[in-house]
Structure formats: structure tokens, C-alpha cells
Write a structure and sequence with these properties.
Protein name: STAS/SEC14 domain-containing protein
Organism: Reyranella humidisoli
Number of helices: 5
CATH topology: Transcription Regulator spoIIAA
Strand order of the largest sheet: 1-2-3-4-5
Largest sheet: 5 strands, mixed
Distance between the termini: 31 Å
Number of strands: 5
Radius of gyration: 14 Å
CATH architecture: 2-Layer Sandwich
Number of domains: 1
Oligomer: single chain
Length: 133
């Protein structure tokens, strides 16, 4: 499996790292895990710097549509930090645009260190939604 994630309820952090070729079913499994853990309100760090994919534009768009559907309703989403290299932005740009919701902070970074710094900033920590019980 090329997609690895950790869920830290105490820190309210969902951290995903890509290594190698990422398949669509892996992304869906990650989203299922996030929903099962009730982690939509957590801070999220997605590090795609070491990942690749052979998914086509349609499959990537379908994943983006599923992710965007999580924005519906009264669910408050936690901040999202995405770490990608410039060459991957072309492939993921459409999905990232779909995820840019006005109800949650989102930023794109070149390094995980920058992303962690932002996710741990006082303004981001203060913006976290109340935990779902």
C-alpha cells in the first residue's frame, strides 16, 4: 500500500503520507478511515511529495467529488495542509480547487515542516471545530 495515515485523536491530527504509486481504492480507504474515526474536524496534513499515481483525470475527479461531498451539511471540517511538489500541482490542481471550501482553512506547501508550522499556529489551533462526541 502506497498511502499511509495516522490518526491522533489527542492531537486532533490526521496525517497522510504517499510513497510510490497511489491507487484510487487506497484514497477511498483513507476517506473511510477518516469518517469512521470521526476525524473530519481534525487538522489534516497530506504529504504527497513522494507519491505518484497512474490514475486518470476522471478517477481523480471522482475522488475530488467524494471529498467535496464531505463539505455538505453541518459538519465542520478541520484545516487542511497539502504538501506537493510543483510538478504534481498540475495533476492535483482541479481536486485541490474542489477542496478549497470557505468553511475551512486550506493551504498548499512545498515542505512538511512548513505545513506543520501552519497547522500548529495559534490561529489554526483556535479555529478547530469542537470535537464530535
Amino acid at each position: 500500500m502506497s498511502l499511509h495515515w495516522t490518526i491522533d485523536p489527542q492531537a486532533r491530527l490526521f496525517h497522510t503520507v504517499c510513497e510510490g504509486n497511489v491507487e484510487g481504492h487506497e484514497v477511498h480507504a483513507m476517506l473511510d478511515a477518516m469518517l469512521e474515526a470521526r476525524a473530519l474536524g481534525y487538522r489534516k496534513l497530506f504529504d504527497g511529495t513522494r507519491g505518484e499515481t497512474r490514475m486518470g483525470a476522471m478517477e481523480i475527479t471522482d475522488i475530488g467529488v467524494r471529498m467535496r461531498s464531505l463539505h455538505k451539511g453541518d459538519v465542520e471540517l478541520g484545516p487542511l495542509a497539502v504538501v506537493i511538489t510543483d510538478d504534481k500541482y498540475v495533476l492535483l490542481g482541479r481536486v485541490l480547487g474542489m477542496l478549497a471550501a470557505p468553511r475551512r482553512p486550506m493551504r498548499i506547501f512545498k515542505t512538511a515542516k512548513q505545513a506543520y508550522r501552519w497547522l500548529n499556529s495559534p490561529s489554526i489551533l483556535a479555529s478547530l471545530p469542537e470535537p464530535v462526541s
